[in-house]
């Protein structure tokens, strides 16, 4: 009976989210604000993967900007080639300015939309799987893994800045079409938002299934007692690699959607600072829950936009202060506040003897004799 109730609650939650994302938001928000919400949903997709890898698996992933950037740049390469073909030009506009007469060889496969979509899925997951096997098989974990992942994000950003064929520090920008649809058309931009919203719901469903499966139980067991899991005959490295690879896949898909929604992608959006920003949203929302990372990422991104519009120089300090407060006083994030109150209520109820009145809930009537 409890399982049936939980299943209905899950379906009701997804239905409510679909109504809000596909009905209420497009009806109430302007085209500009809807585009901003689309960006926030991309951040939420990344956060869902971090919640799985960090919240359930204990892997502090400080380098998700790597996979986010891979997906964004691969999508940007395809969009720039498509724009050049529409204009009947041999190379994209920025290559003409840089004096590059022909497409580099590694650009040519991205003229195919099928290859691009496949690469967005295969390349980041392959890199994450190889990296994860190399790191976790050597039992690298904790702060060492976090530093390594952050170093990869910094290395990718530095590499992209030095690549003239990828736009250098300016990155790829000025996208005009998306698989044949003009991005200047508000209807097509709304379509991009719907794609991001639908992708987020699918990712949440996948993460929920992983968390509630036997694999999810093993992942939590690895986080809490890796040596015990190894003693039981499981290889913790393989369990970690699956979560790390899934998080990389979600980040790559989010990056691929982010590039056409925002209209550009630069090295500054894939380095160390964006990777830490992803993590802050997850920590504030509540990394061990399903919806905490998602709501935290959306809330932090919205707050950044709102505060930056009014206090351009103060948001960084406010973000840092918020992160310190959450880590110092609410380690489980805002999602853990409700659980804390419920735990205290249960403790108070258990402390009250059955059959006796609770002195905290009942008091003597006014005017009663002592």
Automatic annotation (TrEMBL):
Organism of this sequence: Mycolicibacterium sphagni
What is the protein's name according to its record?
Answer: Urea ABC transporter permease subunit UrtC
Subcellular localization: Cell membrane
**Positions of the UniProt region annotated as Disordered:** 348-370
Which UniProt keywords are listed? Cell membrane, Membrane, Transmembrane, Transmembrane helix
* Organism ancestry: Bacteria, Bacillati, Actinomycetota, Actinomycetes, Mycobacteriales
Q: Which Pfam families match?
A: BPD_transp_2
Q: Say if the entry is tagged with keyword Transmembrane helix.
A: yes
Membrane-related topology note: Multi-pass membrane protein
* PANTHER family xref list: HIGH-AFFINITY BRANCHED-CHAIN AMINO ACID TRANSPORT SYSTEM PERMEASE, SLR1201 PROTEIN
Q: Where are the transmembrane segments?
A: 12-29, 113-136, 143-166, 191-211, 241-262, 268-285, 290-308, 320-341
Q: Which InterPro entries match?
A: ABC_transp_permease, ABC_transptr_urea_perm_UrtC, LivM-like
Q: Which residues form a coiled coil?
A: none
Which superkingdom? Bacteria
